[in-house]
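--- STAGE predict ---
source: upstream dedup step, 1 unique chain passed
mode: sequence only
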Amino acid sequence: MVKSQAATVAQYLAELPDEQRAEVEAVREVVLANLPAGYVEMMDWGLIVYAVPLEVSGPTYNKKPLLYVALSAQKRYYSLYLTTVMAEFEESFRARWAETGKKLDMGKACVRFKRSADLALAVVAEEVARLSVREFVDWHAASRAKQEARAR
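--- STAGE serialize ---
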């Protein structure tokens, strides 16, 4: 599964084969246990998304809730998107991960894994817990302003 058409997280999980569901649920439990209050779990972009509701963030550039964390099952692996590991938080994240001895397969903000046991789940938990909703909204606004300034 690369992009789901499921409308709810329950539907998304139900459409996964048992093994994939178990892997996604293991990581989902870590996310939910460490997610600061105010983020909502929903389906968006064909992924399980943990986001700031528009009522809290205000209008966004793409008219969608601000994505904080996302989780999905791909065809041969899984993806965990951690938006805070971009920019100033990336170096710390990589260093903490390296200390665990686990291999990190990461793109821009996407950690790819074959099994939840491959993840440094304590580091994932710390990263998920990193920013309150207000801190994330402020961080996101500052990041967008920097990008726009560079584009000029």
